[in-house]
């Protein structure tokens, strides 16, 4: 599908996102509306609210993306939509809209795994995309995994978290520190003025022969520390910085172990937590240490967005093409 023009739709969680992308690289429009204000008082995403907001916003978001791109439905080459994983109510809204548009226009429809979208976010707005094979560290609120990417259609998870995802650990620890929702960015902001070496929170060590990770013990350690006499008097900035340093150390350690195990031509950081400044700095330094290019998407492409869904569809091609009448949203969509 060379230089195709795709409309992307992403509604896996609480961001209503649409985009128009040419050739899986050039972003002509990237529209995203978050729902933070609707969920903040609950301290997390409320699925029913998320799906209702998607239903209210998606039609306008599609029109807005097409308008910003200076194009129309009849000029598109296809429609790409997130089919899963995610919140079922949210996914259904996006999938139903994409199916209706594809059926009405006769355009090809591409079903994209949300995690594949994150992997190919690093290809957006780049003259020289990551070369294959590359190693990807995918870090988000719901997933943390190392992925071996031989080609757009040959992907293999070689390491993953055994409990909390890194982004989930950020959010839960932020609540322990009484930080507002969304917790991850708030904790990073607080930690900027803290000492990352103030407290020696534990780093998970992998079992022999694995690259798996764990963050639940770290989160629990922070909770017990904050309940202790020492913790009650500790600077919250130091706690945030020390917690963040522990998460980054584990992520970089597993990535380094994977790089030691085989040769890759590049390393890619992706997912919502890829927007974290401390993680980005450590990841880029890792690339320099191993003398391979390290790719980090622009911040707007780290968090959930529809441009990455279009990018993944363009690269996966016919593997992702589906019949509009038979596509169903799958909250547990398998990775491969």
From TrEMBL:
Its main location: cytoplasm. Keywords: Acyltransferase, Cytoplasm, Iron, Metal-binding, Transferase, tRNA processing. Its cofactor is Fe(2+). Residues 26-310 form the Gcp-like domain. The keyword Acyltransferase applies. Its EC number is 2.3.1.234. GO terms for molecular function: iron ion binding; tRNA N(6)-L-threonylcarbamoyladenine synthase activity. Fe cation binds at residues 114, 118, 304. Signal peptide: none annotated. SUPFAM superfamilies: Actin-like ATPase domain (SSF53067). GO terms for biological process: tRNA threonylcarbamoyladenosine modification. It is an enzyme of class 2 (transferase). CDD domains: ASKHA_NBD_TsaD_bac. It catalyses: L-threonylcarbamoyladenylate + adenosine(37) in tRNA = N(6)-L-threonylcarbamoyladenosine(37) in tRNA + AMP + H(+). Substrate binds at residues 138-142, 171, 184, 188, 276. InterPro entries: ATPase_NBD, Gcp-like_dom, KAE1/TsaD, TsaD. Binds 1 Fe(2+) ion per subunit. The keyword Iron applies. Gene3D superfamilies: 3.30.420.40. GO terms for cellular component: cytoplasm. It is found in: Cytoplasm. Required for the formation of a threonylcarbamoyl group on adenosine at position 37 (t(6)A37) in tRNAs that read codons beginning with adenine. Is involved in the transfer of the threonylcarbamoyl moiety of threonylcarbamoyl-AMP (TC-AMP) to the N6 group of A37, together with TsaE and TsaB. TsaD likely plays a direct catalytic role in this reaction. Belongs to the KAE1 / TsaD family. This is tRNA N6-adenosine threonylcarbamoyltransferase. The lineage of its organism: Bacteria, Bacillati, Vulcanimicrobiota, Vulcanimicrobiia, Vulcanimicrobiales.
């Amino acid at each position: 599908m060379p230089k195709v023009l795709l409309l992307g739709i992403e509604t896996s969680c609480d961001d209503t996102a649409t985009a128009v992308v040419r050739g899986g690289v050039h972003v002509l429009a990237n529209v995203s509306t978050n729902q933070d204000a609707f969920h903040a008082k609950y301290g997390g995403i409320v699925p029913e609210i998320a799906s209702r907001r998607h239903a209210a916003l998606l039609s306008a978001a599609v029109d807005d993306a097409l308008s910003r791109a200076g194009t129309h439905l009849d000029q598109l080459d296809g429609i790409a939509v997130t089919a899963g994983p995610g919140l079922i109510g949210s996914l259904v809204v996006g999938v139903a809209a994409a199916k209706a548009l594809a059926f009405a226009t006769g355009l090809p429809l591409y079903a994209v795994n949300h995690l594949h979208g994150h992997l190919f976010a690093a290809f957006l707005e780049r003259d020289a995309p990551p070369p294959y094979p590359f190693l990807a560290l995918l870090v988000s609120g719901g997933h943390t995994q190392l992925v071996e990417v031989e080609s757009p259609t040959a992907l293999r998870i070689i390491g993953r978290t055994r409990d909390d995802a890194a982004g989930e650990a950020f959010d839960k620890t932020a609540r322990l520190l009484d930080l507002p929702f969304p917790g991850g960015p708030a904790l990073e902001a607080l930690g900027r003025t803290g000492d990352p070496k103030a407290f020696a929170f534990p780093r998970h060590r992998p079992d022999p022969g694995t690259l798996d990770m764990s963050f639940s013990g770290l989160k629990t350690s922070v909770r017990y520390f904050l309940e202790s006499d020492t913790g009650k008097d500790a600077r919250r900035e130091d706690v945030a910085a020390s917690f963040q340093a522990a998460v980054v150390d584990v992520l970089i350690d597993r990535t380094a172990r994977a790089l030691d195990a085989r040769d890759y031509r590049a390393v890619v950081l992706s997912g919502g937590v890829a927007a974290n400044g401390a993680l980005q700095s450590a990841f880029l330094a890792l690339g320099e240490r191993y003398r391979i290019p390290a790719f980090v998407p622009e911040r707007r492409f780290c968090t959930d967005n529809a441009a990455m869904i279009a990018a993944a569809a363009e690269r996966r091609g016919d593997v992702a093409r589906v019949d509009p009448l038979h596509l169903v949203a799958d909250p547990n969509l398998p990775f491969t």
